[in-house]
Each structure stands twice: as structure tokens, then as C-alpha cells.
Amino acid sequence: MKKVLIANRGEIALRIVRACRELGLSSVAVYSDADARAPHVREADEAVHLGPSPSSESYLRGDLIIAAALRVGAEAIHPGYGFLSEREWFARAVRDAGLIWVGPPAEAIAAMGSKTAARTLAIAHNVPVVPGTTEALHDADEALAIAARFGYPVLLKAAAGGGGKGMRVVREASQMASSLDAARREAKNAFGDDAVYVEKYIEGPRHVEIQVLADAHGRCVSLGERECSVQRRHQKMIEESPSPAVNAELRKAMGAAAVRVAKAAGYVNAGTCEFLLDASGAFYFLEMNTRIQVEHPVTELVTGVDLVQWQLRIAAGERLPFTSTIEPRGWAMECRITSEDASNGFLPSTGRIGYLRLPGGPGVRWDGGIGSGSEVTLFYDPMLAKLIVWAPTRLEAIARMHRALGELTIDGVETSREFHMRVMEDEEFRRGDIEIQWLERRLDSLVGAPPPRAQVEAAAVAAALLAERDRRSRTPRTAAIAGTLSATQDAARPELSPWARAARAQGLRGE
Ligand code: ADP
């Protein structure tokens, strides 16, 4: 394997370019009209134009992507996440074209592609699932009978579901018929499949997932958990590793369950088993994501394992050198920086990125897909970048994240930065008292909170300084002449540093 085509865009495409470069592989980007000048295109060794901006005419055109790979002489295709990453037909088509698929076998994607099939497989291998059915519902009467057996509330879920689509909570029998219709319609629209089944709705669980790596030689290991309970509308917003609710014993049990599911599916490459964890420590398998996850960096930071490099190495036939569960070291946290206006119902914001100042310093990682000048459109997902930090303890990681968010400036579009800062200041979050409904319950106080006092004071001082500078600049002529004169004199004064001379030449003496 020498050349890898990356069938994706944005931050994950750039992340894969970096992994390729570190492994000595050359990378090929693909792009749509809207992304002609995007960072992932500039950074890759080569780039191929796919088509117009809508994903359906570019990043979802598997035929064009495979043709591009063959044309440029790439041996492998890395799908990233989203787009074609979990489409069985695409994994198969890549393989049929004689190319290496950097992901699990098409058969494993198929085994996990339907939530009902995955549940059946988990049950068969002694992995607990949320109580519910493994068959699609025929009608509302059947749903009512099942709900009566488990007790309300129940959750209707699309078998082909993803991204929280096609899900409806039903709290009482009278809502069943209309909720079932709505879930079916949404599932049909989003996935072309209206199969819906029933699960018991668990109140207040955490979302905890296990990262696994499996090689093609039969070894499969768990890399520990990620806590992803901070969600809005079933979409993750902040992730961390380890989880405040998981100890070494639970980590081992959940890791073993995830490895059983992966092995049962004939899994190879990086994958994630998602679980709900209730307050008593009982966990239930939800589904397996057969690709790299958005939140993979937090696992990388606490394990020291480069997951994207390992995806490529496994695809090239390498053996995993680790045997048992790797214990996490320190604490890692990730904020998804999106172009959404949190104070305005998370309304998507579009525009051109102007000034961009990235955070730095100890323990800070920026996985971004934007640069200044980047155009943020409505064609793609609003996630612009991920800000990830590492520190020895959870509270230190929170302080570091708050500091790094404070350094971040993105001009030109509204972003979720302020919202994330408020979460870092929240007492419940700081105590780790979170579950999947926490954010929705807390949202009003998080987005409506006035800025902290120190920030208001800093703004007042800044305004006063600007007014003062304005006042002084009303006498520019004499200042400029004085500056020129002193610059001429200063040239003959070697004791002045170049900085002092420059400042004096601008009439900024002593400032
Ligand atoms: P998707 O594939 O659409 O993301 P998931 O099955 O992963 O669907 O569920 C998404 C989210 O919905 C979970 O992270 C969790 O927050 C919530 N959820 C799913 N199943 C249940 C359940 N049985 N009870 C309560 N919440 C659930």
C-alpha cells in the first residue's frame, strides 16, 4: 500500500492525510465545487474533483470515487465517517474493483447495519441489550401489546437508523399510532427503509461506548470507554475518556462484551460498540458503529494508540501488538466546534471564516477542517473542528478546555464556542453528574447565562483603552512628524532594540 484515496472532507479528511504522511503513504483528496480551496484539498498530496457541491453529486458518488482511485493509482480507499463509510455496497464495490477498503469487511457492516440484526447477534453471544423486540413492527396494535408488556415509556427506533433519526419516545398508549407513523415516515425518508421496532425507554442512562481494534489475524482488543452523555437531540456534543462512571472492573466487563460482539460479526479494523449504562452499573448494547468515530481522539490521548494509523496498518495486513485492555492514562475531553448559534436554538450559521486564531499550549489538540477564507455552507455537516485536551485529572482537563476555548477566535460565523465554555463552568458537569437527558434539561441555563463578571470587566477595560487610543490619534500629524524625526535619530542609537525603534517610529513611545 503506497497511496490512499480519502473519500471524505473536512477535519476527518485532514486527520487521515496526517496519518498517511506519518506512515510514509501518499494521500489523495477528493472534493466538490464548494470545497475547491478547502484545507483537506490543499494538504493532500493529490486531489481529484468529483462534482457539484451537494453530497449526492460528489461525496456520495461511489462510482466516481472508485474511478478516481483507479485513475490516480491508489491501492486503498479510506472512507472516514459519515458519507459512504457504513454503506455495505460501497465496501463491496471497492473490494470488487481490486482496491483495499480501510474498514471492516462488507459482511461485518451488513451484520451491524441493521439495529435489529445487531441486537439478535448480541443476544446470541450473551451481551445484554435494552429490553425490546428484534423484529420490525407490523402495526400500532402490535406496538401497543409490546409496550403494555414492558411498560411505558417506550422508544420506537428505525432498524436502519443513524444520527438519532427515526426515533420517537412514546409515553402513553394514546400517542402510539401517531408516533409510529412519524417514526416510519422519517425512517423511510432518511434510510429508504421504514422498518421500526420497540425498545424500553431507559430514563437517565449514560451513553458509554467501547473502542475496539481487530486485526485480520484473529486478535481483537478493547481500548476502553468514551463517555458521550452530553447530547442534544441524540447528537453528541462533548466526549471524554475515561468515563467518570466507569471503574477498572466495569471497563473490563464492557470491553469483553464489545469484543464478543465484534468477534461474532467477523469484525476487522476499528469499530465502536455503543452501550447505555444505568445508575446501577447495568449496561445494554445499543449498536456497533463500523467506522472511525468523530470522538476517536479522546481514546488516542489516553491510550497513546493512533487509531487512524492502525486503521491503515490493519488494512495493510499488520498484526496488532497489544494483547489485553490498555488502561487509560490521565483524562481527555473533546468539544465539537460547530457553526451553530447556541443562543438562537442552535441555528446553523453560514459565511466566510475571517480571522482564525487557534488555541495552543500544553495538552491541546486541534483537529480542524477550516482555515481563514474557508466558506461555511449549508451543504455539509456544521461541525467545523474538534478541540481536544489532555490533562492528568478530569478537573484539570476541564480547566484546560476552558482556557483553550478562551484562546479560540473564529470570525465570520457563529460557533458553539461560548456554549462549550458555559458547560465547562457548570457545577453538575464539573461533578460528572451527566446522563443523556442532562443537556436538554440544562440547556436554558447554559445558553441564556450572562457572561461571567471577569469577562464584562475585561470588555469595559478594552472599550476604555480603544476610546483613549481614538482620542490620541486625533493629533496624528505632529505625532507622525515626531515619529519620523525620532526614527532618524534612533537609527544612530544602537542601544535601542529593533522593537523599540519600530515602536518609536510609529509614535508609540513607551507604550
Ligand atoms: P442512532 O444510530 O440514531 O444514533 P442510537 O441507537 O445510537 O441511534 O441512539 C442514539 C441515542 O438515543 C443514544 O445515544 C441515547 O442517547 C438515545 N437512546 C437510544 N436508545 C435508547 C433507549 N432505549 N432509552 C433511552 N435512550 C436511548
Provide an overview of this structure.
The protein is α+β, with helices and mostly antiparallel strands and 511 residues long. The N and C termini lie far apart (58 Å). The protein folds into 4 domains: 3-102, Rossmann fold (3-Layer(aba) Sandwich), CATH 3.40.50.20; 132-200, Dna Ligase, domain 1; 206-446, ATP-grasp fold, B domain (D-amino Acid Aminotransferase, Chain A, domain 1); 453-505. The strands form 6 sheets. An 8-stranded antiparallel sheet has the order 13-12-9-10-11-14-21-19. It has a 5-stranded parallel sheet with strand order 3-2-1-4-5. The chain has 18 helices and 22 strands. The model is unreliable at 476-485 (pLDDT under 50). The chain has helices at 10-22, 39-43, 62-72, 88-96, 106-113, 115-124, 140-150, 176-191, 248-264, 296-303, 307-315, 394-407, 417-425, 427-431, 438-448, 453-472, 476-490, 498-505; strands spanning 3-6, 26-32, 46-51, 76-78, 100-101, 154-158, 168-170, 196-200, 206-214, 220-232, 235-241, 269-277, 283-289, 331-338, 340-341, 347-348, 351-352, 356-357, 364-368, 375-376, 383-391, 409-410. Adenosine-5'-diphosphate binds at residues 130, 155, 161-165, 199, 201-202, 207, 231, 234, 274, 276, 286-287, 436.
Q: What would you report as the Rg, rounded to the nearest angstrom?
A: 26 Å
How many domains is the backbone divided into?
A: 4
Question: How many individual β-strands?
Answer: 22
Largest beta sheet: what is the strand line-up? 13-12-9-10-11-14-21-19
CATH topology of the largest domain: D-amino Acid Aminotransferase, Chain A, domain 1
Name the beta content range.
15-25%
CATH class group of the largest domain: Alpha Beta
> Average pLDDT, to the nearest integer?
92
